[in-house]
Every structure is written in structure tokens, then in C-alpha cells.
Amino acid sequence: MRLSRYFLPILKEAPSDAQIVSHQLMLRAGMIKQEAAGIYAWLPLGLRVLRKIENIVREEQVKAGAVELLMPTLQLADLWRESGRYDAYGPEMLRITDRHERELLYGPTNEEMVTDIFRGFVKSYKSLPLNLFHIQWKFRDERRPRFGVMRGREFLMKDAYSFDIDEASARIAYKRMFAAYLNTFARLGLKAVPMRADTGPIGGDLSHEFIVLAETGESEVFCDRKLVEMAPPGHDLSVEQLEGVFTERTALYAATEEMHDAAQFETQTAEGDRLSARGIEVGHIFYFGTKYSAAMKANVQGPNGKDAPVHMGSYGVGVSRLLGAIIEASHDAGGIIWPDAVAPFDVVVINLRASDEAVSAACEEAVAKLEAAGKDVLYDDTDERPGGKFATADLIGVPWQLTIGPKGLAEGVVELKRRATGEKQSLSLDAALELLTK
Amino acid sequence: MRLSRYFLPILKEAPSDAQIVSHQLMLRAGMIKQEAAGIYAWLPLGLRVLRKIENIVREEQVKAGAVELLMPTLQLADLWRESGRYDAYGPEMLRITDRHERELLYGPTNEEMVTDIFRGFVKSYKSLPLNLFHIQWKFRDERRPRFGVMRGREFLMKDAYSFDIDEASARIAYKRMFAAYLNTFARLGLKAVPMRADTGPIGGDLSHEFIVLAETGESEVFCDRKLVEMAPPGHDLSVEQLEGVFTERTALYAATEEMHDAAQFETQTAEGDRLSARGIEVGHIFYFGTKYSAAMKANVQGPNGKDAPVHMGSYGVGVSRLLGAIIEASHDAGGIIWPDAVAPFDVVVINLRASDEAVSAACEEAVAKLEAAGKDVLYDDTDERPGGKFATADLIGVPWQLTIGPKGLAEGVVELKRRATGEKQSLSLDAALELLTK
């Protein structure tokens, strides 16, 4: 992508109402533009990262056996009356009346609708287990939206819903998603710790939040340091392996501020392993049994020939929120430092003198070769001054910067900089391309 | 994908309120489920086709130089007051009030918001030309939603917006999108004819609809037969080539019922070339100059140093509607016949006796090899009877059916059927796989 033909509106300064660093950096890097309180347009750079995160989340759901569908943003109020949540949900639910005076709402979550889909088609235990997920825009009418995409009103969420014949198999489905989340966040370059959580308005008796540790996190968390460093469990796990993954982690202390028990923390965790830190919630999983299926008559016939309500769990990831969480966890004074897996571009090629034919030819050769190797390349072909180009490249956080200028080219060298470490090396263009595409 | 682990709720009969064949077939094939009038959930099979269409539309936009962003579904009413359309739009606009009594709406289109984004960042002709597009859910509160996804209320639309310094360059941008649409619909396997159109509430003086010909189309259309058979123009066209593509097509008669002039049709078109047919609108493009930019003060500084409103056009494709249009244009008594490019799976492997180890081993080998070759494979590993499996495979319209059973396997043959023609051949598994992956 040539920067001269792209739409990357960099701001010199963030608006003063952006209070946290991820919000400031997303505005400065031209990733988002606010269109109303808590409602954002995703500018091209922001959308690229959003899609990369979404795709990783999707791939890990599919690897865990979940099947993707897509529910609409608007729902019938009557569906929520069946579960009893229409009145209970309160002012965070955006309630809408259409031209025929029918009551709709902008879905804040989808337990009711997915239960309706399930009961419309599935009648027998033979169709189970089943896990259906979608990645769709949601709306929660926060009283005080703030912190950019971290607490927006219109936000992108992945929500999965498991259906099982009994509690025992539902708990296995829960643990499968627990493991899938560990894999997902690791691929996103995050250290996310599962913490036992309150079930809140979703209901149920088993729930974990996944918390990313970041100095600027929204809340205080307490956990065993060993949890932070554990490797992700990987794929295609047997039920025994899933139990092992779950037990190994939940045996260690981990709690958010509201669930924290200082005495238990001290008993359970050696002093050197006690970590208290700030955290950001990026995922939340629930097992809630027959709460919705019983209310909404989502019954399946069991092997005994009798109908009974299906056992369910739900599993959410805040996809748009993850951009903020990743930036909070990975930035410096110069700007964003994207983990490789979610970076909007793999490399930015910086042309130090766009008016110089030899420099431009070398840049275009580099871009063509990198793209042929499957890399996403941003080519800064503008005539801005070098200092501005370097500042932009640092700000938008592309993992590699390949700089080509007339002086170096005369000496047969280009400069390659790794954004995360700041490490620079001078080398031939061929050597740089080999390093970037190996 | 193993059918036993998938979610494909086939219906024996379509609900009686489904009036047109695409709606009936999408319901029967388990592609959609209605959640409210004109509001559908996309079940896994439907979502796969929706994403394939969306990706083709996206790729052709990018090839034509448009840059993708993503605007939110909800918009501020005040933005539409600036253009004067808030009151003018009427009851089709879904108007919403949030908890703080702020007036929002569910975007039916995005001229206002994209103009707001443009004016927030772009100040000089040096940043032009620019074409921004997004693919996002829209809502139009149709008085009488019907025909499934063909006239839904919540629907997926690709909308692009071009920005140019003057009318001459804006008309080039228009022709670039005109050519991109021809390429897009051809890739989707459709014969779509551009027809001069009324500009309606969008405004402007230049507009074309793209109409798919189908016997069951919603309206009558009239055109020169030569238009239907013209090859798509291809990519990377010069301005001269774009002018040629546009002139060559617009010189031939083509009109929807409301724009039809029978006398002119006869004068302009030889009798043998006069085609009157039924059609479905799948795209609509507009040049409307400074209608929105003047009202909303989206000015850019020209080379002369003076500010003037930017010249704009907008370009829509009904992405979710295209599923209906494709089915209307391509089906038979047995079900859907997907064009290869948009099929939910490339091939369905039908196991005629899932209890037979040799048959299952051959099927799994076929699935593994096809997937290794990059094919999307549905594997019918269920224990349904063969007749039901064939009927399902025909109904869901996968282009190739590879059937493996005990009798054929003993003779060293499998059966390969092409859905579109019904042509069947018996051949060795290796020969079948070679044919499918070549």
C-alpha cells in the first residue's frame, strides 16, 4: 500500500479528552474517529488491526470445534421477555421502536437469540455437543462511555454458546473454551491470566475472566506469578488433557479486586510468587446450565427418550477492546508497538528521497519482493521530511522499518529497524529482504 | 468440515410465507433463520456464501484503488440535519433515542458520515483523489419487508465514496467504479447489465443501476442483447480505457421499466438485439457533485489556493441481497446451483456407508487431500440414507459431489457429479482428486 494513496490521518496531538494512552495513540495514529459518545469509525489502519485480531479469534474458535454463524444486531424485545431479562437489563440496553411500533433492541449479547435458533432446529442429544459462535457488533448504552474503544457503546464482540446434554459434558465444553482462550491470547502476543469471576447478570455458577496485565490497567488484580509465564496449551486436546490444563491453572491463586481474599492469597501463594498488578478484562466465560433453556423451552430428547432443557455456557471476547488492551500493554514514548501477529503491516518501507529515481526504484523493488513473499507492506512514498517519516513509522508501530536513502544506496546499504527494541542494522537490500522474508 | 459436527438444519418444506424461490431455498438449505420481519440470522452455510461474496466485492474495490474503513452502524441525527436529510428520509429511517435522550439513527447509507470523516482530516487537493469504502450492516425500515434477504430491513451493503477536486476527475472516479462493478459481478458468476437510472433521494445527475437478469426478477428491464454478453473490462485501466469501457456500454440501450422509452429502444436497437427480461438490482452508483460537501462544508484547497467543496460520488452493492439474486439466477428443481466462486464449499464428499471402515478411510483420504490442495470440503459422514444425502447435496448447491460407497470401492471407482449439469462420471479416486484439484 502506497502511503500517498492511503488514508492515514496522523494527528500531532491527541484531543485533550483522551485520558488513557491507548485512546490517545489510536487517535494520533489515525486508527479511529469518534462519531458519537462511545461510537467510533474505524479508519483504515485501525480496521486492519481489528480484522487481524478478529481472524485470530475466529481461527482459534474453529480449531476448538465451534461453528460460525452471524446473528443480526437488532433483536425482538419479546425474545428477552421470555428469559425475563428485558426488564432486568436496565438502561444499558438500547431499546428501539420501529415504524410499526414493534419493540426491538440493539443486542448487547445473544444468549436469548442463540437459544431461539437452537430450539428452532435441534431436538435430539444426537446433534450434541454443539458450539455456535459469531463475531458481531453489539451495543451497550454505557452511562459514561470513555477510554476510546476500551469502554465504547458500539463494540465488536466474539460470543460463543455451547449446548450439551448434561452438566458433565457442558463442563468439558467450558474447559475447551478455557483452553481456546489461552491459545487465542497467546497468539495475540498477550499475557492473559484466567481469574475466577462473578457471574453477574449472565447467571450461572462457574465463570472466569481473562485479564491482560498492563501498568495502565483499569483494575487491580492479584495472582500467582507462575500463571503469567505458563505456555498456552495448544490444540486437539483430549478430555483428560483439558482437565489437566484447567486444574493446573485454577489451582493457582488469581483474583480480581472484587473477588480478592488477601488471607487466602498469602496461604496459597509463596511470597516470591505473589503478584499484584493492574489488569484489563479481555474475555469472560460462563457456565450457566439451564438458565435460558429452561425459561425458553429449549429442550432436547436424551438417550432415555425424555425431553430436558439443554445445558449451556457462553464465551465472550471483546474484539474491538483488544486493540486498546494490546496498546496499553505494548507501547513506548514513540507510539504503538504491535505484536507481529496483529500488526496492520508487517513492514514499512521508508523512501528518504521520493524524488530520486534510484532510491524509488530500490524501494519499489523491495515492496514488490516483500509482497510477493506474502508480507503486508506500507510504502512511505511521500515527500515528507525524513524526521516526520520516522516519527510516523514509530507512532503506528509497524514491527519492521526498512529505510532506503540516497547516501546509503550509494554505499550499497539500507537500514533495518526493529520497532520493539529500536535496534538498527545497516545491510545490503538483499540481506534485509532475506531477513524479512525468512 | 464434517457434517456430523456442523450445523446445517435442512428443512423438508419451506414455510408458506416464503414467496420467491431464493427465499424458499435459503430457508430449506438452512442458510438463514428469520428473527423478526426483515431481520435474519445467517446460519453457517449462509454465512460462508455471504463472506465469499463480501470478499470478492472487497478485492475488486481494492483493485480499483478504494481504501477500506468501517463506519459504525449508529449515527447522530444531527449529522443528517446538516445535509437536510434527517426530516426528508421518512419512516424508512430507524430513529433511536439513547439513555441521555440523544437522537441517533441506524444508518441506511453513509454519505453524511463519510463526508464528516473527510472534512475532519482532508484539507488539500494534494490528498485527492480518494475513494473510501466500507462493508457494514445497514437498516432500512421497509414498510413491508419480504422476499427474504432480497428486501430485508437489516442488510449488508458495500458502499464506496469518491472525493475529487472537480467534476472532470469525479467523472473519472465514477467510471472507475463502473468498470469495477462489471468486474465484480462477472467474478460472482452473474450477468449484470448497467442501466441508466433515476438518482432518487441520493441526488445528482449521473447514475447507473446494475441489473442481474433472472426470470423471477422483481422488475421488467429492456436492453440491447450485446450488453449481456460483453466480457468484463479487467483491471489497471488507463483513463482512456475507462472512457472506452463506459462509452461502449452506455452507447447501447438499457433501461429499467421506469426509465424505459419504447420508441427510443426501437430506433436505437436492431430488432434481433432487443431483449426484454426480468431483472434484479444488485448495485447502484451515483455522481452527485457537491450536494453533501457544500451543505456540510467539506472544502478542500485547490491548486489556486482557494477552498471549494469536494466533488463526490457514491457506489453501493447489496452484498446480502446478492445471495438472493444469485439463487434466483441459478437454481433448478433440486435446489441451488452456486457459481464456483461463491459456493459455500467447493466439493461435498458423500460417504454412502459411514459404518464401513474401508469406505470411511477412502473418504477421509479424499477430504485430507482436497483440503491440502486448498479446497473447502464438506464431508457428509452421517448415517443418513443415500437418497437423503444426494438430495441435501443438490439442495445446498455445492459445485462438485464426490460419492464413495462400498460397491464402487470394491470395483476401484468413485462417482463424481457436477451439480450444474448433473453430469456424472465413474472414475478412480485418484483420477477424481486430480480432476478436482487441477
Automatic annotation (TrEMBL), chains A, B:
Keyword Aminoacyl-tRNA synthetase: yes
SUPFAM superfamilies the UniProt entry points to: Class II aaRS ABD-related, Class II aaRS and biotin synthetases
Family in the record: Belongs to the class-II aminoacyl-tRNA synthetase family. ProS type 2 subfamily.
CDD domains cross-referenced by the UniProt entry: ProRS_anticodon_short (cd00861), ProRS_core_prok (cd00779)
UniProt-annotated location(s): Cytoplasm
Gene that encodes the chain: proS
Highest rank taxon of the organism: Bacteria
Reactions the enzyme catalyzes: tRNA(Pro) + L-proline + ATP = L-prolyl-tRNA(Pro) + AMP + diphosphate
GO cellular component: cytosol
Enzyme Commission designation: 6.1.1.15
Keyword field contains Amino-acid biosynthesis: no
Keywords: Aminoacyl-tRNA synthetase, ATP-binding, Cytoplasm, Ligase, Nucleotide-binding, Protein biosynthesis
Assembly mode: Homodimer.
Enzyme class: ligase
The protein's name in its UniProt record: Proline--tRNA ligase
